[in-house]
Each structure stands twice: as C-alpha cells, then as structure tokens.
Write a structure and sequence with these properties.
766 residues, alpha+beta, Jelly Rolls, Rossmann fold, 4 domains, nine-stranded antiparallel β-sheet, 15 helices, 17% helix, ATP binding
C-alpha cells in the first residue's frame, strides 16, 4: 500500500512525463547543452532515457515563490558538465561518450564495456512510483540482475567441503566382515567384524554387541572380551555411539582363543587383527514408537533422502553401516576433559575393597542446561560399572529423566552399562516420588523432601549392601557408588534449590560444567579444588549443542520417553539386586485400543490426591470429570499413615475418596511405583476407574493411593496411529466425535480475523 507521499510523487512523475514527451522525441543538435538548459532538472526515474526537462513549475502559489526557487536552485548535473566529475569513479554511474550523448537517451544500445561492468541495483523503496503500462520500456527488463558480491576465490577454484568420516573401518566381505548363518529359524542373524587398532565403526539402528577377542571402546566405555552381550540403541535422534578398537595389553594378539565356536575361515583370518566383534540383530519393537510419535518416525534407519546412497550391507536387518556424517546424524564425542575427570575418581585396578569403605563414593553432576550433564552422567555410570557390580543413580532432573518419565525423582540400581538414549531403557525404579511437574518451582519443599527421603534410603539399604562374589567377576561388590544428576535450572530459585540439594546429598566429588556464557550460570572454578563442604570439585568443559537440537526439542524427547514408558514391557520377575529395565515394547495397538485394568474405588482405593495450580478448586462432586485422560501416580504408603487423613466410613460407594486441598503423601512414608493413564471413570452406581499402566501386575496390589499432577499425556498417545494416514478415526470412532480431542488447524500469528473498534478516540480528538 502506497503512502500519501509516494502517491504525490507518482502523480508528479506522470505529469512531467506527459509534458516532456515531445522534447524527448527531438534529438539534440549539439553535444553540449545550451546555456539556458544548464540548470534544467530531469525526472529522477528516467535520466538515462530523456533529456532533462525544465525545472520551472507550471503553477506556483503567490507569495514565497522566489524564496522556494532560490532554495531549490542546484548546480549543473554531472552529465551536463564538461569538467572532471568527482562522481565518475563511482560504481553506480555509467560513463557514456559524446557520440552516445548526441543520440537519443531512450536508445537501448550500449557498448560491450558497459554491459560487462556490474551494476548495483537499488533495492525497492516504498517512496518510488510504481511502473504501469503507460511507462516506456527501458530495454533492461529482460536482463538478469547482477549482484556485486565480492568473491574470495574464482568460481572454478571454489570447492565443497566433504562430509566428515564417521568410520575409518573399510569393510570387505570375507576379509574383515563375515556373515554367520543363524543356528535356527528363530535365532537372529549375526555378522563378525575384524578390526585393527585405531579403527572406528559407526552403526545406526538396534543391535547386540559381543566382544570375542581384544578390547574396544563404545561411547567412551571400555569393553573387554567376554560372554556378555550389550544391547545398543543408536537412533538418529541422539548422537551415534562410535566403536573404536584398542590395542589390548592383557591378551596378546595372535593365536588367542576365541570364545564361541566360529567357522574356520574366521579363525584363520582373526590373528591378523586386534579385535573380533560379533553383531546380532536386536528385535525389541522399539522401532514401532516412530509410528506412534511421528516426530521420531524411522529414527532407527537412514533418512529417506539418504537411503539411496551407496552403503555397505552388513547382512543385518536392524543395523546400518555409516561411513560419513550427514546433516541428520551426529557422532557422540567425548571431550578429553571428561576422560581426565572420570579417570581421576576411578579406583585403581589392584585396590583393596576395605580401603574404599571409608572414602566417599557419591558423585554429583551440576551445570546449566544444554551443557551435556545427562550424557556425562550416563558416561560416568557406565565407567563406574566397569569397576563396581552395581551403581545407584539418583535422578533430580524432572524434565529430562534418564530411567523414568518426567515429573518424578527416582533412585535406580543399575548392574550393566546402558547404550542408548533415555527412551531406550525405561525402568521400574528402586524408589521414586512423584512431583507431578517438569519443574519444582510450584512445590520446592516437596521436591527437597523427596530427595532427602531417597538419599536416606540409599544410605540405609544400598550404600554398603554387599553381594555374593561371582567366580569370573573381579568387580567390587561391597560398595554401591551413587551418581547424582541435577537439573539445569541455575538461576534464582533454581540456584537456591541446587545448594539445598548439595547440602542434602553431601557428595564426595562434584563435576561442574562451564556455562556457555556468564549469563547461563556460575563461573567455573579451576581444574580441581576443594569444596567448602569437603567435596572435590572437577571442572569439565561443556559440549556445544549438536545439529540434532534443530530437529528434536526437549519437549519431543519428553514425549517419546512418556510414550516409550507406556508401551514398554517389563519382566514379570524383577531381579533382586537391580531395577528392572524394559526388555521389549508392544506397539501393535495404540493406547486407546489396549484393554485396561478396572479398579473398584471402594475396595481398592484409599485416597485420591490432586496437586498443581488450580486443583484445590475441584469439588468432590466434579472430580470424576477431571480424571478421564489424566496421568496419575500409583503410590504405596506404609500402613497407618492415611488413617488420620481420611475416613473411609463416610465415603459413599458412588463417590471417590477425594478431599480438596489434601497434600500428597509424605515421601518418608510412601513410594511411587509408576504412572498410569486414566482411560475412563464410571461414578454410578459404584465408582470404578479404568487404568492403563506398564507396571508389573505383582506390584499393583500395593498401590492404594492415586496422585494426579500437572503432567499430561502427549497428544500422540491419544491418536490411533493405524488410521493417521487415512480418515483419522480413533478406535473406529469418527474424529469429530472423539472426546478430549479438538481437530483443526491453528491460526498463525496475525492470521485471525481482525476486530476493528471505532469507539476509541485519540487524546487530540477529545
């Protein structure tokens, strides 16, 4: 839309063009203009097409005319002067000779030098008049616009930077790569790799890794030859772990015995290499999570635009060999400061276990967000498992939890390394407490009380819990070290909570991450110094955010972790010494099509608690409307702790045991077993709940308290992925009739209908 000034200029230019048309048609008689035309002014938009017209206006107002003429008098233009021109050397001036000046200015012919010379085209201005069909063609409209950008090198010398290599291993079939036939129809396919010292291998997908001979490092963790098979989950949504061969010092190279019985062709070729690995397919159903949460669709396979690239075939359906890095794949890089910091706290190989009893074995990781704390804490956990049979992991980050969904603090006991993102190893924690939000800002006291209860449980049950020594395991059994991962909120209330957490835990070693900028957190101390509380502080460098941060946000990772938890299949018989991890994922049916548990609220439920902002206003007669589609925590309490808070005799069969404003159970007398999804509520004639939960059935009888917080199920979990590409029905119901869902596209910023109010007056109009 043109402004008033631009419209006036357009009308003035049009009137001048009509009056100067006869003058432009007659060619000039001489090369130099006459003296009477020395002070003439040409229209600003057509100086190269018409001779300058008179500056005199057709009409002038009486009074002040002479002053305006005097004020607007200008010297002769540069093209009408015979002397040297100071503007001649500028790039936006086209130099013409006398023969061209004698000809018509509307001629479109030019010399070769003028065509070759680059011209700078003025950007569009709202004050410039718009060209219409009555304007003359300038003859340059069909020519391409030349951008005068400086080049650092000629075009023929500019080269494209090649993609960085992820794997230095050069696979050759039947030389360093061997395919093994499956032992049975149900057995997974296997492939053997022979590596030399220093070679690296990057693999995408899900697989099981077994070191048959030699020593390797996987994601910064050293793995020795043995019978242990390590499941590895390497999706594109997280940095890819790199396998690197190390020269083994304990086992000499050459005719070292191989653990399983391998074909003779592999045994004959293995002495010329330093490590022998066996890869097997891993079918757990975790790939189906991409169909449920379309953000992670096919994240365990190469992207669609990279699937046609030439790639070596390993003969495995779930594993892909990566030779070079692509924009959507990032390697897991371990900085040297991480290795140095972790190596300084590792016990020596020949240390006596009794000498470690008096030393602290609590390690706290702190720092701002997006600094690499969770990756470092996972690396520290895996490195400690190479020296200890069990390691405890205390999760204090409510938004980015490692072993549980968000919204809870948990204490897990791990007995084997974990190689994969958090959504690949959900667990039933040893102990946990539900906060109900991704931040403790609304309930800081409950957050600190829950952490204090967990650390007391660790000191009472886990710290010095000795295990029976295994005959072929030389790891330490009398001590269970503790790794604490803190949240990335390091300002204001978050900094105060961080100091309170350190006082509660009393760590022996603190790993501090440097903030990317001074505004993101505290200044990092020196390499190692003593903490006022007696802890040794180790400064480690922050890792820059990978390119994957632009593809997957923190909310996306929380969503996939929540959906992975509800589709996980946990072992029915839990191990007695560690927290059970998920062994498979059932993604054959969406949550809306899975059969739920039905709970009789009168006999199986003691209390219902609602936490979070606004929940205190929910009255008992309307609580059944707030529960459908909500996430609740299954909490078990010690006997007698709820007798004084609730009176079951006054609760009718048609109502839920709910009291508005009731606080959550005390963390010192309760424990959260897991989360459940309330699929439906039937208040009459007897109150019944339908619940979906992955918690093993043997634990459900202990949960007699439900706690509802601010956490919600991701919208992907409410949809039916079987019909997303079709009509969008949910379990056979039309999408317009599905409860708790609203379909339609949202308006962008400024896209809604404008509402004009004409009853407002400015101050000058009053």
């Amino acid at each position: 839309m043109l402004s008033a000034v631009a419209a006036r200029k357009a009308r003035l230019a049009a009137s001048q063009a009509q009056n100067t048309t006869p003058v432009a048609a007659a060619p000039s008689a001489s090369a130099s203009p006459p003296p009477s035309q020395t002070k003439q002014k040409a229209p600003p938009q057509s100086t190269s097409q018409r001779p300058p017209s008179s500056k005199r206006k057709f009409t002038a107002a009486a009074g002040g005319t002479a002053a305006k003429k005097k004020r607007r008098e200008q010297p002769a233009r540069y093209f009408a002067q015979a002397s040297a021109d100071a503007f001649k050397a500028q790039d936006d001036v086209i130099v013409v000779d006398e023969s061209d000046a004698e000809s018509s200015f509307s001629s479109s012919e030019s010399s070769e030098e003028d065509v070759a010379a680059p011209r700078r085209t003025r950007a569009w201005s709202p004050s410039a008049p718009l060209a219409d069909s009555s304007d003359e063609d300038d003859g340059d409209g069909d020519e391409p616009i030349v951008l005068d950008y400086p080049l650092s090198a000629p075009l023929d010398q500019v080269s494209v930077e090649p993609a960085s290599a992820l794997s230095s291993f050069d696979p050759v079939l039947n030389q360093n790569v061997f395919h093994l036939a499956p032992a049975s129809e149900t057995a997974p396919k296997s492939t053997v790799l022979l590596l030399r010292s220093g070679e690296t291998v990057a693999l995408l997908g899900t697989y099981t890794l077994t070191v048959l001979r030699g020593t390797i490092t996987l994601a910064g963790v050293q793995l020795l030859a043995g019978h242990t098979s390590h499941p590895v989950y390497a999706p594109r949504s997280s940095p890819i772990p790199i396998i690197q061969c190390r020269l083994s010092r304990s086992t000499p190279t050459g005719r070292a015995p191989l653990l399983p019985a391998l074909p003779e062709r592999i045994a004959d070729a293995s002495p010329h290499f330093d490590a022998v690995l066996m890869l097997q397919e891993l079918h757990t159903g975790i790939e189906g999570l991409g169909r449920i949460c379309r953000t992670f669709d096919a994240c365990f396979a190469p992207a669609r635009w990279h699937r046609n690239l030439p790639r070596f075939d390993l003969g495995l359906d779930t594993v892909y060999f990566l030779a070079r890095q692509t924009p959507d794949v990032s390697p897991l890089v371990v900085p040297p400061s991480w290795d140095a910091a972790i190596g300084s706290v590792m016990p020596p190989p020949d240390v006596d276990e009794h000498t470690l009893l008096g030393q602290g074995a609590t390690y706290l990781v702190r720092g701002p967000k997006n600094a690499g704390k969770s990756t470092f804490a996972r690396l520290l956990l895996n490195r400690l498992l190479s020296r200890y049979q069990r390691v405890a992991y205390l999760e204090c980050d409510l938004g980015q939890s490692e072993f549980t969904p968000g919204g809870m603090v948990s204490l897990n006991v791990v007995d084997r390394p974990v190689f994969g993102p958090p959504f690949s190893h959900p667990s039933v924690p040893h102990a946990s407490h539900y906060i109900g939000a991704t931040s403790p800002k609304n309930s800081p006291s409950h957050y600190l009380e829950s952490l204090q209860a967990l650390i007391q449980l660790y000191h009472a049950e886990l710290q010095d819990a000795a295990l029976d020594e295994q005959p072929n395991d030389s790891r330490i059994t009398s001590i269970v070290p503790l790794v604490v991962n803190t949240m990335g909120w390091t300002k204001g209330l978050g900094a105060d909570l961080e100091r309170k957490v350190e006082e509660i835990i009393e760590p022996a070693h603190i790993f501090t991450f440097a903030a990317p900028s001074p505004e993101d957190g505290w200044n990092v101390p020196g390499p190692s110094h003593s903490h006022p509380g007696g802890a040794t502080v180790h400064a480690v460098e922050s890792v820059p955010p990978s390119s994957l941060a632009s593809y997957y946000s923190a909310a996306d990772h929380r969503n996939i972790s929540m959906l992975s938890y509800f589709h996980a299949v946990f072992p029915s018989a839990a191990p007695s010494t560690s927290s059970p991890l998920a062994t498979a994922w059932d993604t054959s049916l969406p949550l809306c099509a899975q059969p739920p548990y039905q709970l009789d609220c009168q006999t199986a439920l003691d209390q219902l608690v609602l936490t979070g902002a606004g929940t205190e206003d929910v009255v008992p007669s309307e609580v059944h409307r707030a529960l459908p589609g909500a996430l609740v925590a299954l909490v078990t309490c010690e006997p007698g702790t709820l007798d004084s808070d609730s009176d079951s005799d006054t609760v009718s069969p048609s109502t839920l045991p709910y009291s508005p404003g009731a606080p959550p159970p005390s963390p010192h007398a309760s424990r959260c077993l897991g989360l459940a999804l309330v699929r439906g509520v039937r208040p009459h004639p007897h109150a019944r709940l339908q619940l979906l939960t992955p918690v093993p059935a043997r634990l459900l009888g202990e949960a007699r308290v439900l706690v509802m917080g601010e956490m919600q199920l991701p919208v992907w979990g409410m949809l039916d992925f079987r019909t997303l590409d079709g009509g969008g029905e949910v379990a056979g119901v039309e999408k317009g009739r599905v409860p708790y869902l609203r379909w339609g596209k949202g308006e962008g910023a400024g896209g809604e209908r404008r509402r004009v109010r004409r009853n407002l007056m400015r101050r000058g109009q009053m």
